[in-house]
Design brief:
136 residues; Barwin-like endoglucanases; globular; single chain; nine-stranded mixed sheet; 9 strands; 3 helices
């Protein structure tokens, strides 16, 4: 069985632009993409912390260190400059791959500079969950 799992996340990024006149996508500082394990053209989910809107699109790399987070095309109607968002990348993983999965959570400041990158160890989380189930 394949499970759809988080493999990377940019937490509380600030939207810097919203361009309706573009065909679609989200343009992200390539440094943020690398840190969150997001490849160019990869499908990502964007969630607004202002209004809980969710949008699925693909990522385009902006110059490294630019701090750019630009919603292009239709999502420009739903997200505004200054909005805080979460950018989530997902992947399909089998049980063996899950053992080695280490999602990267990238925390940024108001200028979309990396403050911290946390690597989640799902093996430990799954082990803790199994222990909780057995103790009940």
């Amino acid at each position: 069985m394949l499970r759809n799992m988080c493999k990377g996340k940019i937490h509380r990024a600030t939207v810097t632009e919203a361009r309706l006149d573009y065909v679609g996508s989200i343009t992200l500082d390539s440094l943020l993409m690398k840190a969150a394990n997001i490849e160019p053209q990869e499908i990502v989910q964007i969630t607004s912390l202002r209004n809980a809107t969710r949008w699925i699109t693909y990522a385009i790399a902006a110059p490294e260190g630019s701090g750019k987070v630009c919603l292009n095309g239709p999502p420009a109607l739903l997200f505004e400059p200054g909005d805080l968002i979460i950018v989530l990348s997902m992947g399909l993983f089998n049980e063996e791959e899950l053992i080695h999965l280490r999602p990267q959570v990238v925390y940024v400041d108001g200028a979309n500079r990396i403050e911290n990158v946390e690597e989640l160890d799902l093996a430990i989380q799954r082990q803790d969950r199994n222990l909780e189930h057995h103790s009940e």
